[in-house]
Design goal:
Number of strands: 7
Helix content: 40-55%
Order of helices and strands: EEHEHEHEHEEHHH
CATH superfamily: Glutaredoxin
Mean pLDDT: 81
CATH class: Alpha Beta
CATH topology: Glutaredoxin
Number of domains: 1
Strand order of the largest sheet: 2-1-5-4-3-6-7
Strand content: 5-15%
């Protein structure tokens, strides 16, 4: 899924952090169902739907509702008229949402690619970028969080519950640079193992 955003920038909601390197994007988007939410804080239909989408997202990802967040990521693609309007809208939405920066020309490319003509629209994608649902607004209204299970099956996600428990140690609070730090640790470890092997051969 990161391939869709290769060379692009995503913003972390309510923070100045940019999720822009390929590694960071892979970490944020890999093995997850991706929702592209095309909307606007000024659109009356969006104002009705956005609280439902917020609740839907929180019930699947917030620790208050679930022990472990579902494999779900949302990117807000704004049709707001000003950057201030986009920021004001996002301040009312979950922190885990990502957003395309205001005024990014990639927005138009996404609208054309996924045939989005009106808002609100929620495009549901597999990790490889294939479309699961062209516009899930009515499905979310009707079924709520229950519809995620069918998306998860369609996306053929690797179930993280099958991983060993130690994989999750100290990983509940990840920063955006965490995968880079872990990669460095793995490289350091390999270097040390390589040195150890070299010493044994002498």
């Amino acid at each position: 899924m990161a391939a869709l955003f290769t060379g692009k920038v995503l913003m972390a909601n309510r923070e100045q952090d940019e999720v822009e390197t390929e590694r960071e994007l892979c970490w944020a988007l890999e093995n997850k169902v991706l929702l592209l939410y095309f909307g606007s804080g000024q659109c009356p239909r969006c104002r009705q739907f956005s609280p439902l989408l917020k609740d839907f997202f929180l019930r699947l990802t917030d620790e208050f509702y679930v022990e472990r967040a579902s494999q779900l990521v949302l990117v807000y693609v704004s049709r707001d008229e000003t950057e201030e309007q986009q920021s004001a809208f996002l301040r009312t939405m979950p922190r885990r949402w990502l957003a395309l920066p205001f005024g990014d020309a990639f927005k138009r490319e996404l609208e054309l690619r996924f045939a989005v003509s009106e808002v609100p629209a929620v495009v549901v994608l597999k990790p490889n970028g294939e479309v699961i649902v062209g516009n899930a607004v009515e499905e979310i209204r009707r079924a709520g969080p229950a519809c995620f299970r069918s998306w998860q099956e369609a996306a053929e996600l690797v179930d993280r519950n099958f991983r060993l428990a130690e994989d999750f140690d100290n990983r509940s609070r990840r920063s955006i640079t965490d995968p880079i730090r872990r990669l460095k640790y793995k490289l350091d470890k390999k270097d040390k193992e390589g040195e150890g092997e070299g010493e044994g051969e002498d």
